[in-house]
Amino acid sequence: MPLVSMRQLLDEAAKKNYGVGAFNVNDMEQIQAIMEAASETKSPVIIQASRGARAYSQDKYLYHLMLAANELYPEIPLVMHLDHGNSVETCKSAIELGFTSVMMDGSLMADGKTPSSFDYNVQVTREVVEMAHAKGVTVEGEIGVLGGIEDGHGAGGTGLEHVTDPDQAVEFVAKTGVDALALAIGTSHGAYKFSKKPDGSVLKMERLIEIHRRLPGVHLVMHGSSSVPKSLQDVINKYGGKLKETWGVPVEEIQLGIRNGVRKINVDTDNRLAMTGAIRKVFVETPEKFDPRDYLKPAREAMKKVVAERMTQFGQAGHAGDYQPLSLDEMARCYAR
Ligand SMILES: [Zn+2]
Hints:
Blueprint lengths: L5 H10 L4 E5 L3 H14 L3 E5 L1 H7 L1 H14 L5 E8 L2 H10 L3 E4 L13 H16 L4 E6 L22 H11 L3 E4 L21 H10 L4 E4 L7 H9 L12 H8 L3 E6 L1 H17 L6 H23 L13 H9 L1
Parallel strand pairs: 1-2, 1-8, 2-3, 3-4, 4-5, 5-6, 6-7, 7-8
Helix pairs in contact: 2-4, 2-12, 5-6, 6-7, 7-8, 9-11, 11-12
The chain binds zinc ion.
């Protein structure tokens, strides 16, 4: 099975009311961890790479690792998605490389920091949709501005400065034709999301529910949705780390989102925490070891465990074999109709 369109994956998720985790990668071990988790739980999967990841791993390494994943697990529908494309040019280069889905984040200017105007966002996103759909590639847009910084991308702040306006979301979708829409509802990137367990006054779930009611055909995306469990923080701190106490997005809130149109959930921090904790443990408990495999293997295993758990919690587990993936050419024909 070739790399598949995210649109089809999310359409299938919508039919059966489940969510799909989108996990970030920079290297081989992370791709392996996700594929092992997907294979174990029989899950369709979205693997995403940011601009930072593409620079770190170099496009060609990344692409060929994804092809290897695809070849090794032909039974798993696999999407390769660009996370937070900052310009039309970045999205174009991803499509040319072979990504089957791209995010054009026009909520910020190309510097990835400065909030943009609505008109700018519509214009760049529309341009990417035209280019991508002609090739059968999916497009995720963003309306409202997320908090925190992820790979140098984000406006900073708490994420409550620019919560998505439902009227703007409706207008944005009508003007751009995006397949999926990232919303700002108070989540933010990175580990330090909330200083206490977030309740309804922090996470604007009622806003999300309202947007889904008005845009039932659009797949909603939750960014910055690591749960940052205390158990993962504790491992890091037990073995010499210095994380400050912090809270992420509770899984119950994500599940509430999934019941209300959320189809893609971005998770990165939880995997970073799991890997770092596992590596620290090896370093502290067996300081005589120096073979990278001695710590990368437990790191990969720790990430696999988190990913498999999220796949089960989001409901995608068991759905890998539900449908026959369409080729990007077939998707392009669907868009043309
Ligand atoms: Zn994000």
